[in-house]
Design goal:
This protein is of the alpha/beta class and about 325 residues long. It has helices at about 1-10, 15, 25-35, 65-80, 105-120, 120-130, 140-150, 155-165, 170-180, 180-190, and strands at about 35-40, 45-50, 55-60, 90, 200-205, 215, 220-230, 235, 245-255, 265-275, 275-285, 295-305.
Length: about 325
């Protein structure tokens, strides 16, 4: 855990992410440390670490999603920064957070503790909670934990155990949360649209997400709930997404009940990614007949809908810009 904190400080990660604007970019850190990473369809393994006298390298499976790839890469990085001299073949990661330390040697326990602390430190959980205005009781709600996991680019299960490690939830609550399938949270986040399947993640977006980095997969859903001043002629311009790798799948306006004349409405729009991409998306609330600079509000997002790494080296576009 101390080694993880050292890397946070060395690469200025805490200062850069203290506003809750994104997850820890473990692949960029591995690159900066000078370790070679290769992604391969490993059979029976999540990853491997191979130290040599002149360099070090790691393998990460392509048969699991990007959340598992990230945690596995962090685990292998833990072997390196902890100075482990023996090669490691890893069939399991994340066991320390779950309390499963028995049966693992000291090097595996160290690497796993490093990975959990490096990717899911308490200060980063706190930063995202503050940005989203989540209270301490909110962090015991499965729907909030699911949304937090997306912003940490971690699995739902890993996030449950990270909340326990941060003393934000007791053991019993962490165990109860971890047993719940994320699909239920997805369905509650998008009750008014039925997708073909529930494989993609469902992000609940608002103006609190302005400037954030969305690290997800190409088929993820972005559900926007935005205040719109329609009575004054203002509307959010989702037409600007025509050239972005996103499709509008659902669009409606909801009025407050009871209806108040001239009051803002809620614009609810469901977007879905349709291609592997990394781009910046900007939405403006303005009158359609006025110039772009007259926007009442603006919302800009940095999208990295890249999904898991394929066979080979890390894709250059994977690295998250500061």
């Amino acid at each position: 855990m101390a080694k993880a904190a050292e890397l946070h400080k060395q690469f200025d990660l805490k200062a850069r992410l203290r506003d809750g604007s994104g997850p820890i970019d473990v692949l960029s850190t591995i690159r900066d440390v000078g370790i070679m990473v290769l992604f391969r369809p490993l059979e029976g393994l999540l990853g491997a670490y191979v130290p040599t006298p002149s360099a070090a390298g790691m393998l990460v499976t392509t048969q699991r999603d990007h959340h598992v790839q990230r945690f596995t890469a962090a685990h292998e990085l833990g072997h390196h920064v902890c100075g482990h001299s023996a090669p490691s073949l890893d069939v399991s990661v994340g066991f320390v957070a779950r309390g499963e330390k028995d049966g693992y040697d000291a090097q595996e326990v160290e690497a796993d503790a490093f990975a959990a602390e490096f990717l899911l430190p308490k200060w980063l959980i706190t930063a995202h909670a503050r940005r989203q205005h989540w209270s301490l009781p909110d962090l015991s709600r499965p729907d909030v934990v699911y949304q937090l996991s997306l912003r940490l680019a971690a699995s739902y299960s890993a996030t449950c155990w990270a909340l326990l490690a941060a003393d934000y939830v007791p053991l019993k609550v962490a165990q109860q949360l971890a047993k719940l399938p994320p699909r239920l949270s997805k369905q509650r986040a998008m009750p008014d649209f039925q997708p073909d399947n529930w494989y993609g993640d469902v992000w609940l977006m608002s103006e609190r997400d302005a400037g954030v980095q969305i690290v997800g997969s190409p088929d993820d859903y972005l559900v926007f709930n935005l205040e719109e001043h329609a009575a004054g002629g203002y509307e959010w311009g989702f037409d600007a997404l025509n050239e972005a790798p996103l499709e509008v799948r659902h669009d409606q306006r909801k009025h407050d009940v009871p209806l108040v004349y001239g009051a803002p409405v809620t614009r609810r729009v469901v977007l879905q990614g349709n291609a592997i991409s990394q781009t910046v998306v900007r939405l403006d609330e303005r009158r359609p007949w006025e110039a772009d600079e007259n926007a009442l509000k603006s919302l800009e997002l940095r999208l990295a809908l890249l999904g898991k790494e394929p066979v080979g080296m890390v894709r250059p576009e994977r690295f998250i810009s500061a």
